[in-house]
Amino acid sequence: MVIGASGNSANFASWKGLETPPEMDERQFSQWTALLRAKTGMRLSKERKSFLITSLNLRMREIGYHNYQSYYEYLQSGKAGKLEWTALVDRLTVHETRFFRDQNAMAFLESECVEILSQDNSELQIWSAGCSTGEEPYSIAMLVESLLEKQHKKKYYGISATDISLMSLAKAKRGVFNRKRLEQVPDEMVFEYFEEQKNLQYKVKDRIKSRICFAQMNILDCATARLGKADVIYCQNLLIYFDQDKRTEILNGMVIHLKPGGVLILGPGEVIEWNNPLVNREKHNKVLAYRRLKNS
Ligand SMILES: C[S@@+](CC[C@H](N)C(=O)[O-])C[C@H]1O[C@@H](n2cnc3c(N)ncnc32)[C@H](O)[C@@H]1O
C-alpha cells in the first residue's frame, strides 16, 4: 500500500525555519523500507526517500524523538508501539477519495445490484476494501438505497467498509462532509440522504449510515479475516500501492470472500497478470472486474 504524494501534506516546505531533519543512511533506509513492507506491504522506492524522511521526522518531532533508531525501537515496543504504528501509517498512506469517484465502475456496480435485487428473497452484501474516509461506501449505500426506492422494494443490504487507517475510519464513521466534497453527489441524493448542519457541513442520515459496518483491516490479512461472503467486492485505488506479488496475494485472499457468482470490481489497470481458477474476467472495456464461478 501507500506512499503519499498528493494526498499527504508532509513535504520539505513544512521544514522551513525548523531544524534540518537528521540524515538517513543506506542501512537505515533499508531498515525502514523493510519494516514498512513487512507490516503494510508498502513499497518505497529510493525516489521516495525524502518523503519518508519528512513524514517520519514530522511525527518524531510531535512525540519528542530525535533519532531514527530510537523511534524504530519504540515502534516495536508492545502496546504503545502498536498505537504509535497506527499514527505513523496514517501519515504514510494516501487517503485521497471522492463520492462516486469512478463513474464506469459505479454504473457496473449498479447493474450488478439491479440483477441481484430482482431475484426473489435476495439480499445484498458488499465489501468496500480500502474505504478511506467513507465517500466510497456512502456512495454505494446511496446507490443501493435509491435503487430500492425506485423499485418500491424493501430488501436487506449491508456494506462492510475496511481500511488500515484508524484516523480515516474515525472520519468515515462520523459521516460529516463539507458541501464542496459533495460536488459529485446528485442534488436529489444530497437532499434525500444528508442533513444540513452549520457551516456548510452535511451529515449522512442514519438510515444510510446504519447499513455500513466500518472496521480496521490490513488488506494483507484479508485471506484470514472474519468477513461474511460478499456479492460484490469493490476495491479501487488500493492495489496500485503494492507490487505485483502482493497484489496477487491480496486478490487471492479477496476471492475467498466472494459468493459464487459474485463479482470483484477493481480500478482500471490495477491488475496486469492474475490468474485464479475460481474467477473469470468480465468482458467490459471500461471496467476491470472478475466474477467468481457459480459452481466454485
Ligand atoms: C487512495 S485511498 C482509496 C480510497 C477509495 N477506495 C477510493 O478509490 O476513492 C487508499 C486507501 O487504502 C488504504 N490502505 C493503504 N494500505 C492499506 C492496507 N495495507 N490495508 C488496508 N487499507 C490500506 C489507505 O489508508 C487509504 O485510505
Question: How is the secondary structure organized here?
Answer:
Layout lengths: L25 H15 L8 H14 L5 H8 L2 H15 L10 H15 L6 E6 L5 H16 L6 E7 L2 H9 L1 E3 L8 H7 E3 L4 E4 L1 H4 L2 E5 L13 E6 L8 H12 L2 E9 L12 E3 L6 E5 L4
Parallel strand pairs: 1-2, 1-7, 2-6, 7-8
Antiparallel strand pairs: 3-5, 4-5, 8-10, 9-10
Helix pairs in contact: 2-4, 5-6
Explain what the structure shows.
The protein is α/β, with parallel strands linked by helices and 296 residues long. α6 (135-150) links the parallel β1 (124-129) and β2 (157-163). It is 39% helix and 17% strand. The protein has a seven-stranded mixed beta sheet with strand order 6-2-1-7-8-10-9, covered by helices on one side. The chain contains ten helices and ten strands. The chain folds into two domains: 12-92, Chemotaxis Receptor Methyltransferase Cher, domain 1, CATH 1.10.155.10; 103-292, Rossmann fold, CATH 3.40.50. It is globular. The protein starts with 25 loop residues before the first helix and ends with a strand. Bound molecules: S-adenosylmethionine. S-adenosylmethionine (SAM) is lined by residues 1-2, 40-41, 93-97, 101, 130, 132, 136, 163-165, 168, 217-220, 236-238, 241.
Shape from CA axes? Answer: globular
The count of β-strands is 10
Number of helices: 10
Low-confidence stretches: 1-17
CATH topology of the largest domain: Rossmann fold
